[in-house]
Specification:
Blueprint (H helix, E strand, L loop, with lengths): L10 H5 L6 H11 L20 H10 L7 H13 L4 H20 L10 H13 L4 H21 L25 H9 L4 H13 L3 H5 L6 E2 L4 E4 L9 E4 L2 H13 L18 H14 L9 H14 L4 H8 L4 H8 L4 H15 L19 H7 L2
Antiparallel strand pairs: 1-2, 2-3
Helix pairs in contact: 3-5, 4-5, 5-6, 5-7, 9-11, 9-13, 14-15
């Protein structure tokens, strides 16, 4: 009988989280980021010292840029990294601030203290001319204003220069939910076990796609029909979601054939975790196959459909808010505009009276007159 020797494995080395010792990690950071108050010139950081490959990619993205204040931008990103900002948030900062500084440089700005509100107005106009959506533009402005606040706090930047902020009005659109017929058409063409489990989990739990892709094996509790989301995708608030019977059955079938050595519930063929682009392409393929390509559905539409279906079934808004992970009830109220059955009943009842059609309710003006023998008595009471 052979004996298998179990070797000690550091999971941080495998997944690229922390180095073998935190001492070496912070020592490398101190070498590249000295105290800014004691030195006016900050040495150029070695981006290879950052332990996470994704973080390295963010800083390497800034390093070759020929923009004003490049070193200050790197210090700003590093501070956000210390504040536990996600990699996607750091990427949004780069996508927003680098084009802004590049445009300001074309207007003759050679230093950060030369930035003026007209530069930001020109940036907004440029992005609008390119067709950028209002929501995306507002996110760009939020990132830039965060960088400007950093300049005020750390770089002796005038605090009164950008007092009047540019505010982008965002259209208050209705959530785009799928109709029951469209859901039936979609599920009818999804035969792959893994993909069907993914779509049903999004449709029946209301999880965001990022939350589903980050779901690990120990996060799913089959006996309790629920999944634990330790950190929400947007507000970083954890929650518990319930799993319906059909989604649990599809997930169980996927568990029967999946690779048990994989840590994440859903993975791609060449990676231990599936990326968003792969999931989006998969969903688009099934929309085309179901004949729903022209309806502009997205993976997030499954979350909207989940909320709409539960409200139509009579669930209270407060309960739905917890399942969706909304930080405020106002966000959940958007779905009430789609599912207000009382309003619809009132409308069709009123239209039936206007059009002279049949009404399901008795008309209050349609009352039976008293017999003619009582007419003298009724007239006497009215003088």
């Amino acid at each position: 009988m052979s004996t298998t020797h179990v070797t000690s494995i550091n999971p941080n080395d495998r997944f690229g989280c922390h180095p073998a010792t935190l001492k070496s990690h912070f020592q490398s950071i101190d070498d590249h980021f000295p105290d800014q108050k004691s030195q006016t010139h900050v040495s150029k950081p070695n981006t290879d010292s950052f332990p996470q490959p994704a973080i390295q990619q963010i800083f390497r993205r800034v390093d070759p840029q020929n923009i004003i204040g490049k070193q200050t931008l790197i210090n700003f990103l590093y501070q956000k990294h210390l504040n536990n900002c996600k990699v996607t948030t750091l990427a949004n900062y780069c996508t927003s601030i680098i084009p802004f500084l590049t445009l300001a440089q074309t207007y003759g700005r050679s230093r950060l203290d030369q930035l003026k509100p007209v530069d930001l107005e020109a940036f907004v106009e440029q992005q609008q001319d390119k067709g950028m959506k209002p929501g995306t533009l507002r996110l760009r402005l939020m990132c830039i204003y965060s960088f400007l606040r950093y300049l005020v706090e750390n770089e002796n930047f005038p605090s009164n220069r950008f007092v009047r902020k540019i505010r982008i009005k965002i259209p208050d659109k209705l959530p785009k939910a799928m109709s029951p017929n469209d859901v039936h058409q979609l599920l009818a063409v999804v035969n792959d076990i893994r993909n069907r489990a993914m779509i049903l989990m999004l449709l029946r739990t209301g999880m965001r796609i990022g939350e589903l892709l980050n779901l690990k094996l120990y996060d799913v509790r089959f006996s309790e029909q629920k999944a634990l989301i330790w950190e929400g995708e947007k507000n970083c608030i954890g929650r518990v979601v319930c799993i319906s019977a059909d989604a649990l059955q599809a997930l169980s079938r996927w568990y029967d054939i999946r690779d048990p050595s994989k840590e994440y519930v859903f993975y791609s063929h060449r990676r231990h975790i599936m990326c968003y682009a792969t999931a989006r392409i998969m969903f688009k393929k099934y929309l085309d196959k179901a004949g729903l390509a022209g309806k502009n559905y997205s993976l997030h539409s499954l979350r909207h459909t989940f909320a709409t279906d539960l409200l139509n079934a009579g669930m209270r808004l407060e309960c739905l808010q917890q399942l969706l992970g909304h930080s405020s009830l106002e966000m959940t109220l958007r779905y009430a505009r789609l599912t207000d059955q009382t309003r619809e009943e009132e409308f069709f009842r009123a239209m039936a009276r206007i059009e002279g059609g049949p009404s399901h309710e008795p008309d209050p003006l349609d009352c039976q007159l008293p017999p003619s023998s009582q007419a003298p008595e009724l007239l006497h009471t009215h003088g």
